[in-house]
Specification:
Helices cover 33% and strands 18% of the residues. By secondary structure, the chain is of the alpha/beta class. It has one domain: Aldolase class I (TIM Barrel). Helix 2 links the parallel strand 2 and strand 3.
């Protein structure tokens, strides 16, 4: 598949210099900046909030791909939209009414993503596929970086790709969790067009961001 995009996860960046890390990712030809937001409640970890995102916004013109692992998510959509998120991705389990939450994100003129945890059925997203811009397939259990890729999650990608193509939707398929040079190829073949990667981009080849992004992109 052509037009593969790379969304580096800043969870693996040096948090003491996030601004310059993001600038370096833009220079290295990243397509988006993936920002994981965890609340210590929906997932067992805590990361950054809207205020940090608003401070980071001035460092790049790249789209902020913000994954909200927080619940109840509706209480925070406005804050992240106003902080500078371009794509806001939510979990079906974090809302009482997924369709209403999607409408709420759209009301702020933001793109909408829905994320599927490894144990979440693809059926959860099929009814709203035409309403959203992105499906994020989690290939690890969310909450921590550096986990091993779960190859069985590629079956969801194949189902989604078939449905999106047959219905001629513009919805993109993103994958996040343990993505490296080996499994990125399998993910692309399954139908993914956005790869989220943290450890591989920041750590492989002595941290050569440009080389690592290019290697992931070419599968």
């Amino acid at each position: 598949m052509s037009n593969i995009k790379i969304s580096p996860s800043i969870l693996s960046a040096d948090f003491s210099k996030l601004g310059s890390e993001i600038q370096n990712l833009e220079k290295a030809k990243a397509d988006l900046i993936h920002i994981d937001v965890m609340d210590g409640h929906f997932v067992p970890n805590i990361t950054i909030g809207p205020e940090v995102i608003s401070k980071l916004r001035k460092y790049t013109s790249l789209p902020f791909d913000v994954h909200l692992m927080i619940s109840p998510v509706d209480n925070f959509i406005k804050n992240f939209a106003e902080a500078g998120a371009d794509i806001i991705t939510i979990h079906p389990e974090a809302t009482d009414n997924l369709e209403n939450s999607i409408k709420k994100i759209k009301s702020f003129k933001k793109k909408v993503g829905v994320s599927l945890n490894p144990e979440t059925s693809v059926e959860k997203v099929l009814p709203v596929l035409k309403l959203i811009d992105l499906v994020l397939v989690m290939s690890v259990n969310p909450g921590f970086g550096g986990q091993k890729f779960m190859k069985e999650t590629l079956e969801k990608v194949k189902i989604l790709r078939k449905e999106i193509d047959s219905q001629k939707y513009n919805t993109e398929i993103e994958i996040d969790g343990g993505i490296n040079f080996e499994n990125s190829k399998k993910a692309i073949e399954a139908g993914v067009n956005i790869l989220v990667s943290g450890t591989t981009i920041f750590k492989e080849n002595n941290g050569d961001l440009k080389k690592n992004i290019q290697l992931l992109k070419t599968g």
